[in-house]
Amino acid sequence: MKYTRIVPVFFAITALSLAGCETASVERPAGFLRDYSVLNEGTFFKQQFVARDADFSKYRSVKVVPVNFDYLMDKTVADPGDLEDLGRAFRKDIEKALAEKGFKVTQYPTKGTLILAVAVTDIEIPDRVFNAAKSLAPYGIGFIPTDTNGRTAFEGKFIDAETGRTVIEVAEKQSGSGSQINIKAMAIGGYMKFVNAEACFNGWSKQLAAMLDELKKQR
Q1: pTM
Q2: Which residues form the domain of 180?
């Protein structure tokens, strides 16, 4: 009886160890943003810039352009078909998160519209073989701290549709599934190709929407 109680707990904790905790860090500049010297650690992202004189209260709609993959780092392992699917999912997550915060998602920017452009700059898949072996290892060995859950990085910017001025820039790299609670990633992220990357995209989408919503309320 004791054994049957311990086993589920063991695998649950192993899943948590594979998912990771707070993992945000700084990625080297990929070249997508306008000016990296203005980025500082912020409330919503590891690196962010907000134009101090921008009036965010006037923005009611956002156009989300297709995700850019032209700035990917050398370690990325994904074929064009994978990237197309990942980009479509990331864009959909962003649009959903913005809509939930009350912003109109539009394809026709006008006065009072922001254009959001994001670039995925790194996708390193988990070491699935090692993670599978670690989960089956004797008690204790599976908890050795090793970063084998992949990495994902992105850069993003909000641009005033009327003036063309960049008013927000952000950049961040995450290990594993990032800092968001994602049950699917906790369970299988370390063993699947892009589950952790998709969890990062979902978390960043919510952070982008929350950041814009907070700025709109403050200004």
Answers
A1: 0.77
A2: 2-218
